[in-house]
UniProtKB/TrEMBL annotation:
One Pfam family it belongs to: CxxCxxCC
The protein's name in its UniProt record: Fe-S-cluster oxidoreductase
InterPro entries: Puta_zinc/iron-chelating_dom
Top-level taxonomic group: Archaea
Length: 238
């Protein structure tokens, strides 16, 4: 049995629960003020829809259901797998949208989204996602940050009702994301306990090096609200 003190899953679970608590306590008025001061307006450059600027589009469970109805082959295990057991099997908290060879989103055509009305939650709130970071005094708190000064225009005049709507939608997204992460960690902890597994960072690092060098395929178990789904990934898989 792995002690709580040395259990990275339990440690991360505690952290995420604290993040959720802090997020719920984050004043709506403060977030509205940040959004109003930022004054972001989209200029339709489509940079946010590329790996170069945004890495990947993570899907909530509700997003996954919609995307699979549109195109079941448009999803892939989200990158940056969180854990790896002693047998070299990886575990990740959800799916992401696939990208084209040029790094753009699979649904992007001529700088426009083919599924705009059904786009994932993170695309709807971007770039107003909340992020925990330290300020100039070292105090860690929730702050708005996401690819700033890389696209779009700033300091536009946004009315209060618009800022309040953005704040509510963004906070709801962040809460749902953290709840999904908690579900993943709880399910993983139960799976590891039942099957006498443990996270081994050395195994994670070795298998990932081999995979990135094209020397082996890997097994990735992706969490959804229905449980873990197994994928066998070949090197170069998006």
């Amino acid at each position: 049995m792995i002690s709580v003190k040395n259990n990275p899953i339990e440690t991360r679970l505690t952290e995420v629960r604290e993040e959720l608590r802090d997020l719920k306590n984050f004043p709506d008025s403060k977030f509205v003020g940040i959004i109003k001061e930022l004054g972001f307006r989209c200029e339709l450059c489509a940079r946010c829809c590329t790996k170069e600027f945004n890495d990947h589009v993570f899907l909530l469970d509700s997003d996954l259901e919609i995307i699979k109805q549109i195109d079941p082959y448009a999803v892939t295990p989200a990158p940056y797998y969180e854990f790896c057991d002693q047998n070299g099997r990886f575990y990740v908290s959800g799916y992401a949208l696939k990208t084209k060879p040029d790094g753009s989103c699979i649904f992007l055509e001529n700088k426009r989204c083919r599924i705009y009305e059904s786009r994932p939650s993170i695309c709807r709130v971007y770039p107003h996602m909340l992020h925990r970071e330290a300020d100039e005094t070292g105090k860690v708190d929730w702050r708005q940050i996401s690819g700033l000064n890389e696209h779009g225009s700033y300091h536009s005049e946004l009315d209060d009702s618009t800022c309040e709507a953005i704040a509510q939608e963004t906070k709801a997204y962040e809460e749902t994301y953290l709840v999904q992460m908690i579900g993943f960690l709880e399910a993983l902890e139960a799976h590891f306990r039942k099957n006498n597994l443990k996270h081994v960072q050395r195994t994670y690092d070795r298998k990932m090096r081999e995979f990135l060098k094209g020397e082996c395929k890997i097994e990735v178990f992706v969490y959804t609200e229905k449980g873990f789904e197994k994928h066998n990934l070949q090197p170069g898989t998006d």
